[in-house]
Amino acid sequence: MGPLWHSLRCHSMLKAVVFDLDGTLTVLNLPLEAMRRDTKAYFISKGVPTDLFEPADGISSSTTKAREYLLSSGISPDGWKKHESEMDAILDKHEASATKQVILMEDTIEVIKGIKDIGLKTAILTNNGRGSVNAILEQTKLGGLFDIIQTRHESPRAKPFPDGLLKIVARLDVERNEAIYVGDAGIDAVAAKRAGIEFWGVTTGEIDCESLRRAGASLTLESLSRVLAEVRIRIGADK
Q1: Residues 70 and 146 occupy one common structural domain
Q2: Residues 93, 163: one domain?
Q3: Measured by CB atoms within 10 angstroms of the end CB, which terminus of the chain is less buried, N or C?
Q4: In sequence order, what DSSP letters do the residues of the chain get, joined into one string?
């Protein structure tokens, strides 16, 4: 990539790896298009003009546009919180349905254990809600493998805003250039870039290798198992 990533790779000691969840650690089975469509439809029903939204807008960007429009149109902060809560319930229903069939990516447990075994901290940052994440943890063996598991309900603002990543590195007590964020989507890359944290893209979810590179990935990897190999190279554990 550019001089920034070169500096990060050459002059910082890696101390933490933060992972996205769906499409990264688990097979992507969320009905994302339906969730995006329902987000726009909900806010349109509350008076947001249809043409304010673009086809490329995801859940976060649609919500941000709706919030700005409605607040500028005179809705009270409490009124917005009510809309936000109702929208969250719609997302929760989609996520609850998807969590009934959770499949871990191949080697997920081994990769996370391998990263922890070489002394690095681990975390999850996801735009999923706490309810669906807890259900996933109950169905898999991921629960005890992370120092922090942070959902949209604990992040000040969801991805692509950087708030969640910045909160995680602060809680892990590491510098931004001592962490890597691993994810499969454009919003993961944007959040990492805005946070000043290096991003590694895995082609196991939403978008392909070239799209991940264009979004800002310093590395693109075809499988989660490659993440452990690259971590070992980064810290010199393969020597």
Answers
A1: no
A2: no
A3: C
A4: --HHHHHHHHH----EEEE-SBTTTB-----HHHHHHHHHHHHHHTT--GGGS-TT--HHHHHHHHHHHHHHTT--HHHHHHHHHHHHHHHHHHHHHHGGG--BPTTHHHHHHHHHHTT-EEEEE-SS-HHHHHHHHHHSS-GGG-SEEE-TTTSSS-TTSSHHHHHHHHHHT--GGGEEEEESSHHHHHHHHHHT-EEEEETTSSS-HHHHHHHT-SEEESSTHHHHHHHHHHHTTT-
